[in-house]
Design a protein that fits this description.
- The complex is a heterotrimer of chains A (292), B (317) and C (562).
- Chain A is of the alpha/beta class.
- Chain A has helices at 16-29, 46-50, 52-69, 78-93, 95-102, 121-129, 131-136, 173-180, 204-220, 231-239, 241-247, 259-266, 284-289; strands at 2-6, 32-35, 73-75, 118-120, 146-149, 184-185, 225-228, 256-258.
- Chain A is globular, with a radius of gyration of 19 Å.
- Chain B contains 15 helices and seven strands.
- Chain B has helices at 33-44, 78-81, 107-115, 135-145, 152-155, 158-162, 169-179, 186-196, 210-214, 221-234, 241-256, 261-269, 274-279, 281-289, 304-316; strands spanning 2-12, 17-27, 63-66, 69-72, 88-91, 98-100, 103-104.
- In chain B, strand 6 (98-100) and strand 7 (103-104) form a beta hairpin.
- In chain B, helix 11 packs antiparallel against helix 12.
- Chain B is globular.
- In chain C, 36% of the residues lie in helices and 18% in strands.
- In chain C, the strands form four sheets. In chain C, strands 1, 2, 6, 7, 8, 9 and 16 form a seven-stranded mixed β-sheet that branches.
- The longest helix of chain C is centred in the C-terminal third of the chain and has 25 residues, at 485-509.
- Chain C is built from 15 helices and 19 strands.
- By secondary structure, chain C is of the alpha/beta class.
- Classes of the chains: A alpha/beta (292), B alpha+beta (317), C alpha/beta (562).
- At the A-B interface, helix 2, helix 3 and helix 9 of A face helix 6, helix 9, helix 10, helix 11 and helix 12 of B.
């Protein structure tokens, strides 16, 4: 299996452990990733806010690069997935609009014809790789580990533009993967709520309350750790957890695991090899909980 | 006909207590959650409190939480929710107090609405006949105007859930309807944009798409909020963290092709806000210690010159 | 106890328009509504609002509009009222535009029009297919701007009369359950229609004829109540309305074989004949076996996706959500369905009823614009023109009145509380109020609908009278105060049964066919004996029937052909 690989900015910046873990896991699974080093930021919704056409052009450029390689595009960031899915939705359905956007790609010798599929690693595992195949590679089942799936927003909403018509179960994949890896999914309301990250610099208090509420919700339902497919959620849930606890006037101490880290652990990779030592909230108790 | 189970959250206003009550009844496949609730109150339990009127997603009375998310009960087919005979859970809207059973107190909704001065401020006196405006400009407002004030977006708004001062999705979508109305005076539009750029306004939306997802009329309130942000920045209301964040983000992507995270936070907070800057110092130190600080020197991506070019061309366009 | 100069009961378009006018004139005005104003049923008006503006390339004049309306009414509409409406329409539309309504525009940025049923010229102004909603929202914006008092979710129980004049209302605050007295020098009823008297109906569950019943009890006559409109395009299944604007934009009506059957009934206007004519044609086609499952089809396919998405988006959604039909790709099954009542509280051209201090506007009133059959897009127009005029008249009266003497609040409240107690103390009779309502609705729809017979109408009148007796046993199971829907539904049923009786009485009495009142036993219009209004009064001996002449200004009766 081969994908054009789009890790996104944060996996190459503030959450380098996600990048490391993905690389290690892909090797184990036999997935070849061709890193699109020339691809730009998706705009993350922020550039779209300034100019929707700018956002769509930057993403069309990335899609065109994958299309040129004849490969589907894989990302490991929910935010990138959400933004790219929405851009692709517009670009695919309207040839006239696509032609307009292509004018800006031409000087670089690129053209997007609307054929690229964009898939988050979470979707790839379930839809392309297959859970049975994944199960057969599990070396260290996560038996007895209670894991709270945290989808966040961009990979589940708006469902109309995220392929839920063809894949209506996309909001249960984390649970399915957790079960495949031998773990116990925890059900709680917060799993598809906002982590608070997008307003961290605009309204820090609100942002931290959101993070704190979701973490405490998961914890009160017995989670040993939280699992997320989104590095931006991770920045708030892990990076800001201490401050969130302070705002909520309580202790939290809930490790937040990137999805590929979780897969890596079950595949038998060493905690360090998937960067579990690089979290701000200690992952030691989680690591200890995973049967050897 | 199929037999269904509804688990309805009841609120007794006299005792001020909530509990869930299960109702089992037969419905046709074509019937909606509202049809089922009406059957219950008409023939099974006349004490059930529910607001409803038109039964065709026009009047906006019957928003409630169905299986955890706000929906119009009249637009929710029972078969879609309970294909395998699963119990359907019905609760009143969130972010509002219950009055009785599924009837929610919408006073917060209307208070927010009044806060945005929800009426056209056109030139006075008006023209003798109609104001001249393009059909495109009018049609552009239909999306926002489609709002039936059902409250679903407010019910499920993540920012409102943690902060009652947030103006919220419905009122902001309403405000957009005036911001983008060519008949509104420049002064009035300017005032609106200035007001909406303040704390509790447009920049407090957390961009979670919950309102876009639950809106039964495709108003997409969050996208309307985004429209106002754009208009506010263009109008020069930039002395806020939201605009600074946006500018910093755009600067770094334009220059290097990707995000310079190290600059983003301090630039968003504004360098004169020392207090806010200091809040992030412990995090920065811990991140460095964990070896997860973004690179100090932010290198350009290969091909970044094309990203810069695209920015420039579209800025001209 | 609360006091106002003017109290408007009902916050749909007519009510809010009246209140805004009273506010502008400096009156202390308040609005009372059993639902939040934006939930009002004016919301459901889709297609548009008529006015003869004679714009770019149009030869339309107010006279043509008036003539079309007279002809649509089958010469039962009062021509003085109709002239006023047609003349004043353009200014009222401009005013709506100035308030902020986002009417569709033409290429010059002027207000655009679409074709509508029964109209010689194209004169229907619109906002997609959400015209009612778009106007209602703007009207409520104006209400918020004024800051006037709105008694939101208050249910009117009884009008207060002092020395023969109406001086206020006793009402229940639905949220708290408290009974309250609101005094006012003028009271305007704007409570809308009676859809729930029928089953099925396009109307919302709130359309229970409250204002008509209140006026009737207070001594005002109800006029032409037998004139009940069946809309030609209501959706199979839940009976939702699909706008006439679809046909205005060019949609066809077809049989199961795909034939455009209207060419056999209305060779000139085809699908855009008046509603009574189209509904009868559909009924005939279905009866003669050219439909499927009791429906014929609305065919929008040739209009194209772009037009449908821009101008008929709501009905696209309705058909998809409630009948699983994509109107872009498939014809949509439809049938005639009860939609509107032309009849109502008799008023003069300023909205005054025969009872001093009591006014009425909108669907609950009968200023006699629509006569035997209402033209599409004249109802929204009626609400704004006569809402405004009624606001003026009610305010003028109120401002010229001396301060009201205080009402006997205690006994007024106790009277209602006693009623509630009686209803709650009764033992359960083995049936609910809803069951009685359903029986009423079904018999009304069976016999006082598209085609009528003496036998059928008498059967229905008998059933209604039987139901009124059974109503005496109905009990309220919910003993709570807060948001007691059960109690309200019983009170509404009482209103509806009395209104239903006036409809049946008027229908049995009128021995001719005119407009919506099409009798198979009297198939012709009889101008000699029946060009007159039916009046039904409430009396201690039950309903009393009387008649009054139709106002003719310049259009003597003609044969009605479309």
């Amino acid at each position: 299996m081969r994908y054009a690989y789009y890790p996104g900015c944060v996996a190459q910046g503030a959450t380098p452990e996600l990048f490391t873990a993905t690389k290690a896991v892909a090797e184990r699974l036999g997935i070849t990733l061709e890193h699109l080093r020339e691809a730009s930021c998706t705009g993350s919704g922020v550039l779209q806010e300034r100019d929707p056409e700018l956002g769509d052009t930057l993403n069309a450029r990335t899609f065109a690069m994958a299309e040129k390689k004849g490969l589907p595009l894989m990302t490991i960031c929910s935010t990138c997935q959400g933004v790219m899915s929405q851009a692709n939705f517009r670009l695919k359905q309207d040839a006239e609009y696509r032609a307009f956007i292509n004018r800006f790609l031409k000087p670089e010798g690129l053209e997007y014809n609307g054929t690229t599929e964009v898939k988050h690693l979470m979707w790839v595992l379930v839809e392309d790789y297959g859970l049975e195949r994944l199960r057969s590679l599990v070396k260290r089942p996560l038996t007895g580990v209670a894991l709270a799936p945290f989808y966040g927003c961009y990979i589940v909403r708006p469902s109309k533009k995220l392929g839920f018509d063809e894949h209506p179960e996309r909001d249960t994949y984390l649970e399915q993967i957790i079960q495949t890896l031998g773990g116990v999914p925890v059900d709680y309301d917060g799993k598809t709520k906002c982590c608070g990250f997008p307003i961290l610099t605009m309204n820090r208090e609100n942002s931290l309350i959101m993070a704190g509420n979701n973490l405490l919700d998961a914890k009160s339902h017995g989670a040993d750790a939280m699992v997320t497919p989104c590095p931006l959620c991770h920045l708030n849930l892990d990076g800001q957890q201490a401050d969130a606890a302070r705002v909520k006037k309580t202790q939290i101490g809930l490790p937040v695991i990137h999805l590929p880290q979780l897969v890596g652990m079950a595949l038998g990779l060493a905690p360090k090899a998937v960067g579990l030592n690089r979290h701000l909230v200690s992952t030691r108790r989680f690591v200890a909980k995973v049967p050897a | 006909m199929r037999s269904i189970k509804l688990n309805v959250k009841r609120y007794d206003p006299e005792a001020q207590e909530s509990h869930y009550q299960e109702y089992v009844l037969d419905v046709e496949d074509s019937e909606t959650v509202l049809d089922a609730l009406i059957k219950i109150r008409e023939y099974i339990d006349e004490t059930l409190g529910v607001r409803c009127s038109c039964r065709s997603a026009i009047c906006g009375s019957c928003a409630m939480r169905v299986n955890g998310h706000a929906r119009l009960a009249c637009k929710s087919k029972v078969v879609d929710l309970s294909a395998n005979g699963d119990t359907i859970t019905i609760e009143p809207m969130g972010n509002m107090k219950p009055i009785k059973d599924l009837v929610a107190d919408m006073s917060i909704f209307w208070a927010k609405m009044r806060q945005v001065q929800p009426y056209l401020k056109a030139h006075q006196p008006p023209p003798e006949k109609e104001s001249i405006a393009s059909n495109a400009a009018m049609h552009n407002l239909v999306g926002a105007k489609n709002c039936i004030m059902c409250g679903a977006c407010v019910s499920d708004c993540a920012s409102l859930a943690v902060d009652e001062t947030f103006i919220g999705p419905a009122a902001l979508a309403k405000a957009y309807r005036f911001v983008d109305d060519p008949r509104e005076t420049e002064t009035a539009r300017d005032e609106r944009l200035r007001e909406l750029s303040k704390p509790s306004g447009i920049w407090d939306c957390t961009h979670c798409y919950e309102c876009v997802q639950v809106c039964p009329k495709d108003v997409a309130p969050m996208e309307r909020i985004v429209d106002i942000r754009r208009a506010a920045m263009e109008a020069g209301y930039k002395d806020n963290n939201g605009s600074r964040h946006s500018d910093s983000f755009a600067r770094s992507v334009k220059k290097s092709g990707w995000l310079d995270e190290l600059r983003l936070v301090p630039e968003s907070l504004g360098f004169d806000d020392i207090g806010a800057q200091l809040q992030y110092v412990p995090l920065a130190i811990k991140s460095v210690l964990k070896g997860k600080m973004p690179p100090i020197i932010h290198h350009k991506r290969p091909g970044a010159e094309h990203v810069s070019r695209i920015f420039e061309e579209l800025e001209k366009d | 106890m609360y006091h106002h100069d003017v109290l408007v009961i009902g916050a749909g378009l007519a009510g809010m328009r009246a209140a805004i006018e009273a506010f502008r004139m400096g009156a202390d005005v308040a609005v009372m509504s059993k639902v939040h104003p934006v939930r009002s049923h004016s919301n459901a008006a889709q297609g548009g609002i008529n006015a003869a503006m004679g714009g770019e390339g149009s030869e339309d004049t107010w006279e043509v509009h008036a003539y079309d309306t007279v002809k649509g009414s089958d010469w039962l509409g009062d021509q003085d009222s109709i002239e006023i409406m047609a003349k004043e329409a353009p200014q009222d539309i401009y005013e709506l535009e100035h308030m902020g309504v986002i009417f569709a525009r033409d290429d010059y940025g002027r207000l655009a029009t679409r074709a509508f049923g029964g109209a010689t010229n194209q004169r229907t102004f619109f906002v997609g297919d959400i015209t009612g909603q778009a106007i209602l929202q703007v009207m409520y914006e104006q209400l918020m701007k004024s800051g006037m008092r709105v008694y939101e979710e208050w249910f009117a129980l009884s009008l207060i009369k002092t020395d023969g004049a109406v001086t206020g209302v006793v009402a229940m605050d639905i949220i708290s359950g408290d009974v309250q007295v609101v005094q006012a020098k003028s009271v305007i009823l704007a409570t809308g229609g009676i859809g729930r008297v029928y089953e099925p109906s396009t109307n919302g569950l709130i359309c229970t004829g409250d204002g008509m019943a209140l006026a009737y009890y207070a001594g005002a006559p109800l006029m032409d109540m037998e004139m009940v409109q069946y809309h030609p395009t209501t959706l199979k299944g839940n009976g939702a309305l699909l706008t006439e604007g679809a046909r205005g934009e060019g949609a066809y009506l077809i049989t199961s074989e795909g034939e455009r059957f209207m060419q056999r009934y209305a060779p000139n206007k085809l699908e855009l004949a008046s509603r009574d004519v189209v509904s009868r044609s559909e009924h005939t086609e279905i009866q003669e076996g050219r439909g499927i499952d009791g429906c014929v089809f609305l065919d929008c396919r040739h209009l194209g996706e772009k037009l449908i998405m821009e101008k008929l988006y709501q009905i696209y959604e309705l058909a998809l959500d409630f009948a699983n039909v994509d109107i872009v790709k498939d014809p949509c099954p439809i049938r005639p369905g009860m939609h509107y009542i032309m009849g109502g509280i008799k008023t003069d051209t300023d909205g005054a009823t025969s009872v001093p201090g009591l006014y009425a506007a909108g669907e609950c009133a009968n200023v006699s614009i629509h006569g035997g059959n209402r033209l599409g897009a004249n109802s929204l127009l009626e609400t704004v023109v006569f809402g405004r005029r009624t606001g003026v008249a009610a305010t003028n009266r109120a401002l010229s009145q001396a301060k009201l003497n205080g009402a006997d609040e205690g006994s007024l409240i106790e009277e209602q509380r006693g009623r509630f107690r009686d209803l709650m103390d009764r033992s359960y009779p083995g049936f609910t109020a809803a069951k009685l309502r359903l029986e009423m609705g079904v018999t009304m729809d069976k016999n006082i609908s598209v085609f009528r017979t003496d036998e059928g109408m008498r059967e229905t009148l008998g059933i209604i009278r039987g139901l009124k007796e059974q109503f005496g046993k109905v009990s309220v199971q919910d003993k709570g105060k807060v948001y007691n829907w059960n109690l309200m539904s019983v009170l509404e049923l009482e209103y509806m049964l009395d209104v239903a009786e006036t409809i049946a009485i008027g229908a049995v009495a009128r021995k001719e066919s005119r407009g919506a009142h099409a009798r198979t036993d009297f198939p012709e219009r009889d101008d000699k004996d029946w060009m007159k209004h039916t009046l039904v009064y409430n009396s201690p001996d039950g309903p009393m029937i009387d008649y009054s002449p139709v106002s003719i200004t310049q259009w003597p009766p003609e044969r009605r052909v479309y």
